[in-house]
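Bumping with the actual sequence this time:
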Amino acid sequence: MQQDAWKSIFDAYQIHKHNFAKEPFILTAEQIKKATAHFTSTKQREVRILCKQDTRESRPDIFKENNLFILPIKNGIFAILEGEGYVDIPEITSETFSYNSKLDFELETSKIGNSEMQHLDFAYAASLIRSFLEDDSLILTIRGRKYTREFDFYAGKYRHHIVAKSVQTEVDAGYEGKNQVVLIEAKNSFSHNIIIRQLFFPFRQWQLCTRKKVHVLFFEKRKDVYSMWEFGFEDERNYNSIHLLKSARFKIM
């Protein structure tokens, strides 16, 4: 359904003829609403739904065919860029470690439901996250949605300079220790890749709020296995400089 909506948007503003080597294409929420006003389905008109492209596969065909991705740069303003906007979540092929929980009692309520948040909270309560990061001082201090301060960065095939401000970001959990801040994006299903924005924007946002080193993790629970990937950025202002630092998977005993 979104395929038709995005084709209408691209046709309305001749996006397919844009010179992406020169600059990103800037698109507003109002322009999206105007170009899709004739559609009857909410999924074909809702800006939030149309611009939610969290994996390579979730992009409309017109984005895939032209090697494009979309980023919010201000509340109601988006940049469409050519290039790689996503990072692979590589399969962890090493052995699954048995981890002995530091709790001295069983958390019965943590077994009710199957949400990303509860799995993340249990891993923290069992001190698995502290152990993975080798930091016993980590305390949960960050959670939920916030709007970013202004920051600039480079992104896409042509390393265009972009300024972002007042973009809504969400952190599933953030922890502060004596010397570092750790931000986590969590999923409870298998992920082949995610949009780099989900790690990069919170990373840049919290860099402006602390003098401590900021680290970003991707967390996933599948069946009874907890997996974690720590990513870093070789250049903190380069969106595409993301790289994997370490990964491991555990069973909590």
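The tokens above came from a reply further down the thread. Residues 97-252 form one domain.
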